[in-house]
Write a structure and sequence with these properties.
This protein is an alpha/beta fold and 240 residues long.
Length: 240
């Protein structure tokens, strides 16, 4: 993967002073549809990097943003949660910087999707009306005014875990709102899965992992395979 410096583009949009991402490039000859990938709360770690590489193997030019570029997780987390709660703020400018960079790349077809996990899933949902051609929301928190947030949204594929106690009923609420908004969608809830079930390994600091396992935050390989197949089919229909 290659590091991409997005600082100048982000600053011009009112985003972070420092911003970079990791670019995963598919094999073969391009151009390819692009995907801005937004990491979960633990940041752009090895688990997230492998997710970006997986997207590239599926044929998507994937820019994995590091939303903690401008100060690390401890300094940036408050900003992230405030942005998710309000639907405004610097992180949205950073995502837009990533979208514009991909759309302008000669390696990209010009069609760009957004995909996020956990915290990134919440951002992906809120970014669905902001110039993207498709969005993949993976166990992302729903905004308080869901109907307003979905006005003008692009097609959305979303995946949730039935054992995710932090997001009980989210899949059903999102699907109902997408129906009301007449937005093309594919929403699924996997009964056996908890939070972060698409990951191929436990993420987060080692000392926290036993607590996460008790809370049901763990990989679910069977649900993951099906969710990835749905994402690929949905992106294939709306990005390719």
């Amino acid at each position: 993967m290659d590091r991409v410096d997005l600082a100048d583009r982000a600053r011009g949009l009112g985003g972070s002073t420092r911003l970079h991402g990791e670019l995963a490039v598919p094999e073969g000859a391009g151009p390819w549809p692009g995907v801005v990938m937004i990491h979960e709360v633990f940041g752009l770690d090895e688990v997230m990097t492998r997710q970006a590489e997986h997207l590239a193997r599926l044929g998507y030019l994937t820019l994995a943003l590091d939303l903690y570029s401008d100060g690390g997780a401890r300094r940036c987390l408050t900003t992230m949660f405030r942005a998710v709660a309000s639907g405004t703020g610097r992180p949205f400018a950073d995502v837009e910087a990533g979208r514009r960079w991909l759309a302008a790349s000669p390696s990209c077809t010009g069609r760009v999707g957004v995909l996020g996990f956990c915290m990134g899933g919440a951002f992906a949902l809120l970014c669905a009306p902001r110039g993207f051609d498709a969005a993949a929301v993976n166990y992302g928190q729903l905004p308080k005014d869901l109907d307003a947030a979905l006005a003008g949204a692009c097609p959305i594929v979303a995946s949730y875990g039935g054992r995710d106690r932090s997001l009980r009923g989210a899949a059903a609420r999102l699907e109902a709102a997408l129906e009301r908004a007449d937005v093309a969608h594919d929403v699924a809830e996997y009964p056996s899965a908890g939070h972060s079930f698409l990951n191929d390994a436990m993420a987060g600091p080692g000392w926290l992992r036993p607590v996460l396992r008790v809370a049901g935050v763990r990989p679910d390989p069977e649900a993951s395979v099906d969710a990835w197949a749905r994402i690929d089919a949905f992106f294939g229909a709306h990005l390719r």
